[in-house]
Amino acid sequence: MDGYEAAGRIRGELRRSSLPIVAMTAHAMVEEKERCIAVGMIAHLAKPVLPEELFRTLASICAETSEPPAGSQDAPPPAQVAACG
User: I need a labelling partner for 13 at 20 to 30 A (CA). Which of 1, 5, 20, 74 fits?
Assistant: First the structure.
């Protein structure tokens, strides 16, 4: 299974629309980025990944996911808190 199929399954079969999925790939062409976004990934980082770009992307995701998903009574999972805290 590649990243495209995994993202499609996460979005479709598992119905996890709010789970952030970031592509980290050696494919840097615009068409690849568009394909990643089309299957449900929220960002695309081309290798070699620049630390500044990685941190900027993660900070953006953390800002967007700082609240628990709608309908959730629980706190965010520890991994999310550690990554975004």
Answer: 74
57 residue type, one letter: T
5: pLDDT strictly greater than 60: yes
pLDDT average, residue stretch 66-78? 50
Q: Which residue has the tokens 């479709």?
A: 12
- For residues 85 and 82, what is the distance between their CA atoms, to the nearest angstrom? 5
Cβ-count burial of 7 within 10 angstroms (0-12 exposed, 13-18 middle, 19+ buried)? Answer: buried
| Residue appearing with tokens 């500044």 | 52
User: What's the pLDDT band for 75 if we cut at 50, 70, 90?
Assistant: very low
Helices (DSSP H) in 12-76: which residue ranges? 30-38, 51-64
